[in-house]
Amino acid sequence: MDLSAIPQIKHTNSNNFFLLSGPCAIEGEDMAMRIAEHIVKLTDKLSIPYVFKGSFKKANRSRVDSFTGIGDEKALKILRKVSETFNVPTVTDIHEVSDADKAAEYVDVLQIPAFLVRQTDLVVAAAKTGKTVNLKKGQFMSPESMKHAVTKVKDSGNSQVVITDRGTMFGYQDMVVDFRGIPTMKEFAPVVLDVTHSLQQPNQSSGVTGGRPALIETMARAGIATGVDGLFMETHFDPANAKSDGANMLSLDCLEQLLVNLTILRGTINELQ
């Protein structure tokens, strides 16, 4: 994947990690713009290539009454406005074949959720839009098996593909990242570590996913030390009241110091190579 091929992405020559970050779901225009503005300022200051992340809808929910979105077109238009206002690319996840062309009209990167990464029709549909495709590694898949998902994208005529590791199921209610898989997957495509989802604790009896956000910096540092190309982090100015995945999100006011620390660590790693 050529990072500079993503429209509007900046700082691609900084030799820093790239960042996919934003809220789990688009809850409204004001919140999206507020989060985007904050992260853009930080990433410009630290020369971090940045892609704003926000789900235009949430299809994988624990309960039927869980928040799924504010309306597809409304949310996608907000993603476009973020891109146009702050001159940054955007990424959103898709769940059905018909979502691919619809979302591709508004965003720059299409993300395949971990539960759906083996769905050939969905992966191929995303690839054929010509957009960069971010493949989330299935919680049930080995690092080696992600080669086949990457091949589906490339065989569809699209070389713009990246893998994101978001942990592997450990028992019923925990996720564990096997860092041995990072160099393995880097043989197939650039690799991103999804820091916040790797700290999820799914399948809670309440029907609301839990998490361990206190370990976000620990996980992110480990990813940088292991040589990931990018980081994925969901963040919100009020995680406790976020409509989706608040239990494992990073509070927006903690992001600056975290990115400063990770940039320093990345610089040290670069010197060792």
UniProtKB/TrEMBL annotation:
Top-tier EC class: transferase
Keywords: Cytoplasm, Transferase
Pathway(s) where this gene product acts: Bacterial outer membrane biogenesis; lipopolysaccharide biosynthesis; Carbohydrate biosynthesis; 3-deoxy-D-manno-octulosonate biosynthesis; 3-deoxy-D-manno-octulosonate from D-ribulose 5-phosphate: step 2/3
Subcellular location: Cytoplasm
Keyword Cytoplasm: yes
Record EC number: 2.5.1.55
Name of the protein described by the UniProt record: 3-deoxy-8-phosphooctulonate synthase
Species the sequence originates in: Ulvibacterium marinum
